[in-house]
């Protein structure tokens, strides 16, 4: 353990400071496809009973009309966050009738590209902007790739904790600037060590063969309808034969917040020749994409972790970060565990807390001398062959066995887990850590190994297994319906969201072309 980590842990262990570790905030966003009773993509519109996908605070859609996204609020106790996520699932199942929620991250058999429905958000300008943005994603990357689902884990440390560390260091910057610099440091460490999360929680070593659409790939055939890699942990996070040439040159610098926002600003304002050739509208004047830049908007940048700040009305994410700094981080590389009804459980959440706190407190020098490239190479190696016996990664230019490095990291993260248990009572973080140490010692315990083992033992294809799990989880949620009061509360939110969308549509007076032009200009101000 570094001297700096030891010092910071000792500081936080002092009785007046220890309660700060119970004030970290958590939030979860879980995506999942709606499917019909055969496991095919649901072609029905977003259920009106679930409210407006544009304005509902907890139930929306991501890329496709069939790709639901459930959003919890924030809570200091991850158990409360998961309880809210559970309630959203149970409410949704109460409204779905003869549809199911697909359990894994990778989709099953999909219809032809042209038939995959892009999410609709109504006739308001902001609703149309969200739809055209998704049309642009289809044009640039194809619709199939956008049907992959994941879990996003939002995490923040209390501002008082940052102030304590800043005072301890004698740092004279504005608190906002110090806090942003420390979140960026957390992100740098996350990039160094996130391969560990893919080993421990990757759950997509196989996929339906139709997903590749006849594209060249290096996957092996498990059966007639299933492709896989024998040692893979998360094919979802591999390139899967898809390359974004436009984003290939976009590697935001994580030295500080300003260099990060500058690189994204450049990407959303710099035309990309291939997209320029497509244009923004077709011959009939219908919109194809919002613009022809490297990124249409900031969120198009595919990253494993993002610095975030809650936006105000009409404000763009980059504007919020520049004006008020980083408020929390969003981890975006987590697969949905198809063995778990929610796709994530308390053990994983508690380990993530210890891991992220470790990334925040551990020394985090700037990424130099090819370390950025090596970190990315380690990550990609683990997603495609992370369980391979004797696998080696690169650390400081030297080969190191994954198992050895993982053991060292878990020992250091264990110090953080112990402090979290000291702050909150009990030994739940230590238990969560022990579960991960067991996976490092025995790779057959990882979700990716368990999934492949289930396929081989049952003789099922990936899609047959996934449909069976989806039905099991549907039964789990439908056997525990919400109370009448809980349902009424959700119903009220759904109805309010529909009314809000109607109000927004009625209030729009500006034509859409002018609205888009103004939206593009907003970053230049």
TrEMBL record:
Q: Which reaction is catalysed here?
A: L-cysteine + L-glutamate + ATP = gamma-L-glutamyl-L-cysteine + ADP + phosphate + H(+)
GO terms (molecular function) for this protein are: glutamate-cysteine ligase activity
The entry assigns this protein to a family as follows: Belongs to the glutamate--cysteine ligase type 1 family. Type 1 subfamily.
Superkingdom of source: Bacteria
List residues of the Glutamate--cysteine ligase domain: 10-382
Would the keyword ATP-binding be found if you checked this record's keyword annotation? yes
Keywords of this entry = ATP-binding, Glutathione biosynthesis, Ligase, Nucleotide-binding
InterPro entries per UniProt: Gln_synth/guanido_kin_cat_dom, Glu_cys_ligase, Glut_cys_ligase
Its pathway is: Sulfur metabolism; glutathione biosynthesis; glutathione from L-cysteine and L-glutamate: step 1/2
Q: Which SUPFAM superfamilies match?
A: Glutamine synthetase/guanido kinase
- Pfam families to which the protein is assigned, alphabetical: Glu_cys_ligase (PF04262)
PANTHER family to which the protein is assigned, alphabetical: GLUTAMATE--CYSTEINE LIGASE
Is this entry keyworded Ribosomal protein? no
- Name the chain's protein: Glutamate--cysteine ligase
Q: What is its EC number?
A: 6.3.2.2
Organism annotation: Stutzerimonas nitrititolerans
């Amino acid at each position: 353990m570094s001297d700096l980590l030891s010092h910071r842990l000792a500081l936080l262990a002092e009785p007046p400071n220890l309660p700060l570790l119970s004030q970290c905030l958590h939030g979860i966003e879980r995506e999942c496809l709606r499917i019909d009773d055969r496991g095919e993509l649901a072609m029905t519109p977003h259920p009106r009973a679930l409210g407006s996908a544009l304005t509902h605070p907890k139930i929306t859609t991501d890329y496709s009309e069939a790709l639901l996204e459930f959003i919890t609020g924030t809570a200091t106790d991850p158990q409360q966050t998961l309880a809210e996520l559970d309630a959203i699932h149970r409410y949704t199942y109460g409204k779905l009738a003869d549809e199911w929620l697909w359990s894994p991250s990778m989709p099953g058999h999909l219809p032809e590209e042209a038939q995959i429905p892009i999410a609709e958000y109504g006739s308001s300008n902001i609703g149309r902007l969200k739809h055209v943005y998704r049309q642009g994603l289809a044009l640039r990357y194809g619709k199939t790739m956008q049907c992959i689902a994941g879990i996003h884990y939002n995490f923040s440390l209390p501002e008082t904790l940052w102030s304590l560390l800043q005072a301890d260091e004698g740092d004279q910057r504005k608190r906002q600037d110090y806090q942003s610099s420390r979140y960026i440091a957390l992100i740098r460490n996350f990039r160094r060590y996130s391969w560990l999360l893919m080993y421990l929680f990757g759950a997509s070593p196989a996929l339906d063969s139709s997903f590749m659409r006849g594209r060249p790939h290096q996957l092996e055939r498990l059966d007639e309808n299933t492709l896989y890699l024998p040692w893979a942990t998360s094919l979802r996070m591999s390139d899967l034969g898809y390359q974004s040439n436009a984003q290939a040159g976009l590697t935001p610098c994580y030295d500080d917040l300003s260099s990060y926002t500058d690189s994204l600003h450049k990407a959303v304002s710099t035309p990309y020749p291939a997209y320029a050739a497509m244009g923004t509208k077709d011959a009939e004047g219908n919109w194809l994409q919002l613009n022809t830049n490297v990124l249409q908007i900031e969120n198009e940048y595919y990253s494993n972790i993002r610095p975030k700040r809650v936006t105000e009305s009409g404000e763009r994410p980059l504007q919020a970060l520049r004006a008020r700094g980083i408020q929390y981080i969003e981890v975006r590389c987590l697969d949905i565990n198809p063995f778990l009804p929610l796709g994530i459980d308390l053990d994983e959440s508690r380990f993530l807390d210890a891991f992220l706190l470790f990334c925040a407190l551990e020394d985090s020098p700037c990424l130099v001398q090819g370390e950025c490239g090596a970190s990315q190479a380690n990550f990609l190696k683990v997603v495609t062959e992370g369980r391979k016996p004797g696998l080696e990664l690169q650390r400081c230019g030297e080969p190191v066995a994954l198992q050895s490095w993982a053991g060292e990291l878990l020992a250091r993260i264990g110090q953080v887990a112990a402090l979290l248990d000291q702050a909150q009572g009990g030994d739940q973080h230590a238990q969560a850590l022990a579960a991960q140490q067991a996976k490092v010692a025995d790779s057959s315990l990882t979700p990716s190994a368990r999934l492949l083992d289930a396929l081989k033992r049952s003789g099922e294809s990936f899609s047959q297994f996934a449909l069976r799990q989806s039905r099991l989880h549907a039964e789990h949620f439908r056997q525990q319906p919400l109370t009448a009061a809980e349902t009424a509360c959700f119903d009220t939110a759904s109805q309010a969201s529909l009314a809000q969308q109607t109000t927004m549509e009625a209030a729009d007076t500006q034509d859409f072309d002018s609205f888009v032009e103004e939206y593009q200009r907003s970053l230049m101000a």
